[in-house]
Amino acid sequence: MPIPWLVVLQAVPWTDVIKNTPRVADGAKKLWNRVSKKSSTSSDPLALLAPIDASETLSVAQLQTRIAHIEAATAELHSQMLASSELINTLAEQNAQLVARIEAGRVRLRWLMLLTVLFGALAASAIVMVWGR
Q1: Where would a tag sit more exposed on the chain, N or C end, judged by fewer CB atoms within 10 A?
Q2: Residue 110: pLDDT above 70?
Q3: Residue 6 backbone dihedrals phi, psi, to 5 degrees
Q4: Distance CA 52, CA 70 (A)
Q5: What pLDDT, in 10s, does the model give residues 23-70?
Q6: Nearest Cα to 45, choosing from 27, 65, 59, 28?
Q7: Is the dihedral of CA 80, 84, 90, 94 positive or negative?
Q8: At residue 21, does pLDDT exceed 70?
């Protein structure tokens, strides 16, 4: 059985969403600024290095090859992190715009509801005046 959209929309705490939207957008911007300023060489490639057994002796060339692979993997991870944080930033900005438009629609709906009630009362009073004579 599908859930009616009205029930779903009523279940959302819109006041909390509206209050938290600027914080989400600011947090995404701070994340984007922090991640975009870092270079791919600033992270520690040794953190990704698998432990080497003490009995295993590696030549300098093998170690340099491992380091090159680790640096390449780190650079790739950094570029993925930049892309992800850019996406998060974009989504946060879109969310802020969406919430602003929803809030404007909510205000407009309240005005329309007020006008409808006023015109309904005016129409009812006109009908009473016409039929009351």
Answers
A1: N
A2: yes
A3: -65, -40
A4: 14
A5: 777 777 777 777 777 654 445 544 445 666 655 677 888 888 888 999
A6: 65
A7: positive
A8: yes
Amino acid of residue 32:
W
Residue pair 86/32 in contact by the 8 Å Cβ criterion: yes
In this prediction, residue 40 carries a pLDDT of 47
Residues 104 and 98: their CA atoms lie apart, in Å, by 10
Q: How many CA atoms lie within 13 A of 52 on its CB side?
A: 13
Distance, CA of 94 to CA of 84 (rounded, Å) = 15
How far are the Cα atoms of 45, 51, 63, 65 from residue 54, in angstroms, in the given order? Answer: 20, 9, 14, 19
Q: Spell out the residues 6+ positions from residue 6 whose beta carbon is closer than 8 angstroms to its own.
A: none
pLDDT tens digits, one per residue of 10-20: 777 777 777 77
| 106 contacts: CB under 8 Å, gap ≥ 6 | 14
